[in-house]
Write a structure and sequence with these properties.
The complex is a heterodimer of chains A (115) and B (113).
Chain A (H helix, E strand, L loop, with lengths): L4 E3 L2 E4 L5 E6 L6 E7 L6 E7 L2 E5 L7 E4 L6 E5 L8 E8 L9 E2 L3 E5 L1
Parallel strand pairs in A: 2-11
Antiparallel strand pairs in A: 1-3, 3-8, 4-5, 4-9, 5-6, 7-8, 9-10, 9-11
Chain B lengths: L2 E3 L4 E5 L4 E3 L2 E3 L6 E7 L6 E7 L7 E2 L2 E6 L4 E6 L8 E8 L5 E3 L3 E6 L1
Parallel strand pairs in B: 2-12
Antiparallel strand pairs in B: 1-4, 3-9, 5-6, 5-10, 7-8, 8-9, 10-11, 10-12
Classes of the chains: A mainly beta (115), B mainly beta (113).
Chain lengths: 115, 113
């Protein structure tokens, strides 16, 4: 069974550009989560999906951020008009979503640097 | 809102020693899950151990065990016979139901040869 994969692993962009990240969860995991982690800090929740439905969004997720999971499989996170403060590691995690299997499994992350 | 606090930013021990990492949390919920995740340098986050709040018995996974004190809202991680590969950031996390994880600030653990 393959783990959670994320692409790209690294992204350098200039301020004002748009970027898109992709996350492929563990197959048959119906919940998918996005977190942001800045250097030396714990991850902070951004949003999560149950199948294709986006169930919760953090107030950290400004209007410049949008996430989709169109077919309930992979997900994309887009940041429009990037700012230097968006520089962080963006982590994706997935879980089965059943009562007894709530462990979230993380991908390797996408490290974003905004110049 | 739930909060998780890890009061030890850094710890360092010699190989083969036992080390305990502290974690406290604040919640008004009665049913929840607690986790310890490990994030090695430049590598991805992996689960170390999990604890269901309704279980009184402390979870163990090989050299890793927890001391879960529900009334005190404390959830410490003990690593026995520490190994060089245990060097990592360790994050304590809280989850209510099948929802978001709330992480602490992390403890940077270094195992010295």
């Amino acid at each position: 069974d393959t783990g959670v994969s994320q692409n790209p692993r690294h992204k350098i962009t200039k301020r004002g550009q748009n970027v898109t990240f992709r996350c492929d969860p563990i197959s048959e995991h119906n919940r998918l989560y996005w977190y942001r982690q800045t250097l030396g800090q714990g991850p902070e929740f951004l949003t999560y999906f149950q199948n294709e439905a986006q169930l919760e969004k953090s107030r950290l997720l400004s209007d410049r951020f949008s996430a989709e999971r169109p077919k309930g499989s992979f997900s994309t996170l887009e940041i429009q008009r990037t700012e230097q403060g968006d520089s962080a590691m963006y982590l994706c995690a997935s879980s089965l979503g059943e009562d007894t299997q709530e462990t979230q499994y993380f991908g390797p992350g996408t490290r974003l640097l905004v110049l | 809102a739930q909060t998780v606090t890890q009061s030890q930013p850094e710890m360092s021990v010699q190989e083969a020693e036992t080390v305990t990492l502290s974690c406290t949390y604040d919640t008004s919920e009665s049913n929840y899950y607690l986790f310890w995740y490990k994030q090695p340098p430049s590598r991805q986050m992996i689960l170390v151990i999990r604890q269901e709040a309704y279980k009184q018995q402390n979870a163990t996974e090989n050299r890793f065990s927890v001391n879960f004190q529900k009334a005190a809202k404390s959830f410490s991680l003990k690593i026995s016979d520490s190994q060089l590969g245990d060097t990592a950031m360790y994050f304590c996390a809280f989850m209510r139901g099948a929802q978001k994880l709330v992480f602490g600030q992390g403890t940077r653990l270094t195992i010295n040869p």
